[in-house]
Write a structure and sequence with these properties.
binds pyridoxal-5'-phosphate, globular, 18 strands
Length: 442
């Protein structure tokens, strides 16, 4: 074996034993989470009802949250850098959100009627996101995409839906590794390479006559916080306009990255936008909206109106919490500040990686980021796949031990109550990880 191959083999053995030790420590530290997990096994397949939350040996159970902190069932305290995959923007029990929910509860829930909050929240959302001339609410981001894609099919009278490898648009729209057996029965064209302008334009042209919609996250979130270049998004805008294809930005995650989402930041305005997560103030939420000529198809006063149902579309808890959050807490100024804080934090973490010349980096924009264990620019899921998955697991377990909570896949989303001191704690934890595990990261 060459010296390099010998070194790599030794590193793999070291990584395997580091992981074995880290998992054993996790089990030792978390017996109560283990017992709660065991209890759920009888009724939930694999003890789980939300796949992304599962990891070996078993997932942590959180018992309490307050502000930017979480406590697990064994009493460990964490700085919450996961922020419920971006939905937890306001942190835990924000007083303004809490008050809005209390007031809503005092007034009674589940009226089976219009309520006074839905139009108010809709107006705020409409004012923020440039593409949203009219909108409708749903219960989740998945449902928002189901409706947005379906109305695009109806509007264009065409049959195909273009998405991107590595993309995620909800439980029935998952393209992390191409097509998935649980995806909805749409006629998908999966564009292979995010950020590949000529390749994608050629594909749009090839399918132009049958293509109803191009759905894209302006930064792939679940795929590893991989930003689209503004030039790529502009090229999509131009090609879809030319061929009468609806351009749908899935801003379920990225809408938090500026006061008006990435569409406003880059000034690339899609025809349709799907939204979700934090906009419901932490309650179940989704919304889809866009051009008035498309969305007005849902106007029930029209004889040819498209129906759009959903028992909880306007549920008063979501409407109230969402309205309080957007009007009083996540103001445009706070959006700018939080994302500037995130940019600075990510730059500091990347400076640590560069200083030690490690195969490790943090990608993202503003308040969202993901760790990757490789050098070089990451422009698509194909680049990201070259990074070590085992190191992501080790990073995750080591961060938990240091009181930092994040997604098992290495993603973080900042929430508003996170302080500079919490940011310092994250930088210190990453620094310690690099010192302890440095030999594995070269
Ligand atoms: N679209 C994107 C970009 C998402 O990240 C998600 C969820 O993570 C969804 C859609 C689906 O939203 P929900 O989980 O509310 O169904």
């Amino acid at each position: 074996m060459s010296t390099i191959a010998t070194q790599a083999a030794a590193r793999n053995i070291d990584l395997d034993s580091a992981l074995t030790d880290a998992r054993a420590l996790f089990v030792k530290r978390n017996p109560n989470s283990g017992a709660i997990y065991q209890e759920a096994l009888g009724a939930l397949p694999g003890g789980n009802t939300r796949t992304v939350l599962f990891y070996a040996p078993y997932p942590l159970t959180m018992s309490k949250g307050d502000g930017a902190y979480l406590w697990d069932a064994d009493g460990h305290k964490y700085a919450d850098f996961l922020g419920e995959y971006t939905a937890g923007l306001y942190g835990h029990s924000h007083p303004v959100i809490r008050k809005a929910l209390d007031q809503a509860l005092d007034g009674g829930i589940s009226f089976g009627s219009h309520n006074a909050m839905e139009g108010k929240l809709a107006k705020l959302v409409q004012a923020r996101f440039p593409s949203v001339e009219l909108l409708r609410f749903t219960n989740s981001g998945t449902e928002a995409n189901l409706m947005a894609i379906t109305v695009a099919l109806v509007y264009t009278g065409r049959s195909k839906v273009m998405v991107f490898e590595g993309g995620y648009h909800g439980g029935v729209f998952t393209f992390q590794t191409g097509q998935s057996p649980v995806n909805g029965p749409f006629n998908f064209v999966i564009a292979p390479t995010y950020n590949d302008i000529p390749g994608t334009i050629a594909l749009i042209e090839k399918h132009a006559k049958e293509l109803a919609v191009v759905a894209i996250e302006p930064m792939q979130g679940g795929g590893g916080c991989i930003p689209a270049s503004p030039a790529f998004l502009s090229a999509l805008r131009e090609a879809t306009t030319k061929h009468g294809v609806v351009l749908l930005f899935d801003e379920v995650m990225t809408s938090r990255l500026s006061p008006g989402g990435l569409q406003a930041l880059y000034n690339v305005i899609p025809d349709m936008t799907s939204l979700g997560k934090y906009i419901g103030g932490g309650m179940s939420f989704g919304a889809f909206g866009g051009r008035a000529d498309i969305m007005s198809r849902f106007d029930p006063r029209r004889p040819d109106a498209l129906p759009h149902a959903g028992t909880f579309n306007n549920n008063i808890l979501t409407m109230s919490a969402g309205y309080a959050g957007l009007s009083e807490v996540y103001t445009p100024q706070r959006a700018v500040e939080l994302n500037a804080f995130g940019d600075k934090l990510r730059q500091r973490l990347n400076a640590l990686c560069r200083k030690r010349d490690l195969a490790m980096q943090f990608t993202g924009i503003g308040s969202m980021m993901s760790v990757h264990f490789l050098k070089g620019e990451i422009r698509s899921i194909f680049d990201a796949r070259a990074g070590s998955k085992e190191l992501v697991e080790l990073f995750f377990l080591d961060m938990l031990e240091r009181g930092i909570y994040l997604a098992r896949r290495g993603m973080m989303a900042l929430s508003l109550p996170i302080t500079e001191t919490d940011g310092e704690a994250l930088v210190a934890a990453v620094d310690e990880f690099q010192t302890a595990r440095g030999s594995l990261l070269k």
